[in-house]
Give the backbone structure.
Amino acid sequence: MKIEIETRFNIGDLVYLPGFDGEGFRPRKKPFEVQSFWIYYDPNSKKITISYDLDDDLLGYSESACFASYEECKQWCIEQNSK
């Protein structure tokens, strides 16, 4: 079996995450380094999900929650807060 999966980020890349401060989403100023990633397959939906482990954090972060730049993360926060 051959499986090819393209990830948005590689190990060693720096990513930005949104944080929630009780009133809304705000981009975190400090980037996090991708330490490893996990690939999950849901047989019911037949979808693949990619999750990243960042800077020795015990939580995994989905690919959709990670951003390549502070500005990209900031824009996402603005969009989410306007909903």
Notes: The chain has one helix and six strands. The longest strand covers residues 32-42. Strands lie at 14-15, 18-20, 25-27, 32-42, 47-54, 60-62. Residues 70-81 form the longest helix (12 residues).
